[in-house]
């Protein structure tokens, strides 16, 4: 990467600059273990549901909350964790988060009941909330501006790699060890990462953090936790009009509105609301939320399509996600070259167009479609993601003052988490509703007591068909699922297309030339203490 203007004076101490790539490797290791964990857990669900001593005898509700307890704590504390990192030092919040995550992993592996597992997963979510924003904030403070896009591309590629290798790793562990191994595997990785972080990662923080804002922090936690809980509950019930769903959603929205009003009026806000006047910042944040909303459709129907419709094992289904990871690893670190040539707007819109093509491909998948088609679709979608996430992340972080990197990173991850949770709930509810409507006419042959249960999902229908020797149900159940998958894929394509239009209309041609774009006033850029070694 070259610039026509003379290079700006280095803001990163030489000792830190020399080891910047080793620091990035350490941060990627931390990121891998946190992101990989949830995708590993999905593979272990069936084993955890098996009665002791093989599993814990967890119910479907227990399994859902083993995931949701992590998500609630993680999403609810992301913003607060980013603020604390800016104030007290990102290295120490990162080390603390990794330590808590490792402890939660060890306790989860040793859980003796579903309730214990749910509680220990919440501990893991607490640790993860402090790790995620710190990794990106530290990148912004150890790399000079011209190298940040490349570093963020590697960071984004690592997220894609973790999502893809999680099911493969989980499948291998479940085949050879007990269910707790999917959590225990985190412990030695965390131990290595902690040592490397302590030795390599410099500390950095906001040199002028101002007074604490406990009211704003509390309102943000209440708002995010209540909103995510309501979204999750609505998805579980497939009914957002149920009071168990809309009441917490309403509480969450009201708390977040109160948060915004309070932050606009207080003299020491936790979040500078004027950041959102910056079109680059707001549009980039919006694109992140839209992309992750749409991508959750694949996570819902992809596993059922490969395993239940096509008959692949969990390990084989995980291997089919490798093309998506390979594409991200290949293209994400190089997305900056495309941005240099065509600009942020065209790169992101083009990446989202590739994701739309992938979703439209799912609309035409059938029970006997050659599997290489799925491989190609995964690669296309991975290539699209690789040209969306790095540029928008650079745009988000580049539009804010560098001393606010933790808050910016936390907002990036919070919108991704909220968008993803909303996608899980809404698209999951659509999938469930369309499937139930499609298969209901074929359930008349079952005893009345089993019909409602059989209509819940493809897995439930097939399990009851096997138990009652109703083989005639299998084919219509698969057909109904394929139709539901096509509907969800079509909706996801439409949502992503809206995101592409948003990118075309609002994103800039080029990333702002210096931190703190319009609407994000810059200070005189004091050294935000990245040199504490």
From TrEMBL:
UniProt xrefs under Gene3D superfamilies: MFS general substrate transporter like domains (1.20.1250.20), Multidrug resistance protein D (1.20.1720.10)
Membrane topology category: Multi-pass membrane protein
Subcellular location: Cell membrane
Domain Major facilitator superfamily (MFS) profile: 23-511
CDD domains per UniProt: MFS_MMR_MDR_like
Taxonomy, superkingdom: Bacteria
Annotated stretches, region: Disordered: 514-533
Name recorded for this polypeptide: MFS transporter
Keyword terms of this UniProt record: Antibiotic resistance, Cell membrane, Membrane, Transmembrane, Transmembrane helix, Transport
Pfam family, one: MFS_1
Regions crossing the membrane: 21-45, 65-85, 92-112, 118-140, 152-172, 178-200, 212-232, 244-262, 283-305, 344-365, 371-397, 418-435, 484-507
């Amino acid at each position: 990467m070259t610039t026509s203007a003379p290079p700006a004076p280095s803001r990163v101490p030489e000792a830190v600059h020399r080891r910047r790539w080793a620091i990035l490797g350490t941060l990627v290791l931390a990121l891998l273990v946190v992101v990989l964990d949830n995708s590993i857990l999905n593979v272990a669900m069936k084993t955890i549901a098996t009665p002791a001593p093989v599993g814990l005898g967890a119910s479907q509700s227990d399994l859902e909350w083993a995931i949701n307890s992590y998500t609630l704590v993680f999403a609810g504390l992301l913003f607060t964790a980013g603020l604390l990192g800016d104030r007290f030092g990102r290295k120490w919040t990162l080390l603390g988060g990794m330590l808590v995550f490792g402890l939660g992993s060890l306790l989860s592996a040793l859980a003796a009941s579903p309730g214990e597992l749910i509680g220990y997963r919440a501990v893991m979510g607490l640790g993860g909330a402090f790790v995620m924003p710190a990794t990106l904030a530290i990148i912004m403070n150890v790399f000079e501006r011209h190298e940040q896009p490349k570093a963020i591309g590697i960071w984004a590629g690592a997220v894609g790699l973790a999502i893809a290798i999680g099911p493969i790793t989980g499948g291998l562990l479940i085949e050879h060890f007990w269910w707790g191994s999917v959590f225990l595997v985190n412990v030695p990785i965390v131990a290595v990462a902690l040592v490397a972080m302590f030795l390599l990662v410099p500390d950095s923080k906001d040199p002028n953090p101002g007074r604490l804002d406990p009211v704003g922090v509390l309102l943000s936690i209440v708002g995010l936790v209540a909103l995510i809980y309501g979204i999750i509950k609505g998805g579980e019930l497939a009914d957002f009009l149920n009071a168990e769903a809309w009441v917490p959603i309403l509480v969450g929205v009201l708390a977040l509105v109160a948060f915004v009003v309070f932050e606009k009026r207080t003299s020491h806000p936790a979040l500078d609301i004027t950041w959102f006047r910056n079109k680059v910042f707001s549009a980039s944040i919006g694109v992140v939320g839209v992309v992750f909303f749409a991508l959750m459709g694949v996570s819902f129907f992809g596993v059922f399509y490969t395993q239940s419709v096509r008959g692949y094992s969990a390990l084989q289904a995980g291997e089919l996600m490798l093309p998506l990871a390979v594409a991200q690893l290949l293209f994400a670190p190089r997305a900056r070259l495309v941005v240099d040539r065509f600009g942020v707007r065209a790169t992101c819109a083009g990446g989202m167009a590739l994701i739309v093509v992938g979703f439209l491909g799912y609309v035409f998948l059938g029970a006997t479609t050659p599997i290489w088609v799925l491989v190609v679709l995964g690669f296309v979608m991975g290539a699209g993601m690789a040209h969306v996430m790095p540029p928008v992340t650079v745009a988000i972080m580049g539009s804010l003052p560098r001393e606010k990197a933790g808050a910016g990173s936390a907002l990036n991850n919070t919108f991704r988490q909220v968008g993803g949770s909303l996608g899980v709930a809404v698209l999951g509810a659509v999938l469930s509703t369309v499937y139930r409507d499609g298969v209901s006419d074929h359930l008349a042959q079952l005893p009345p007591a089993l019909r409602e249960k059989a209509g819940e999902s493809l897995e439930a229908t097939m399990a009851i068909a096997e138990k009652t020797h109703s083989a005639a149900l299998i084919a219509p159940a698969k057909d109904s699922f394929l139709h539901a998958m096509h509907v969800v894929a079509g909706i996801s394509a439409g949502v992503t297309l809206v995101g592409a239009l948003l990118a075309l209309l609002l994103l800039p041609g080029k990333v702002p030339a210096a931190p703190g774009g319009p609407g994000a006033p810059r200070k005189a850029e004091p050294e935000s203490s990245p040199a504490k070694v």
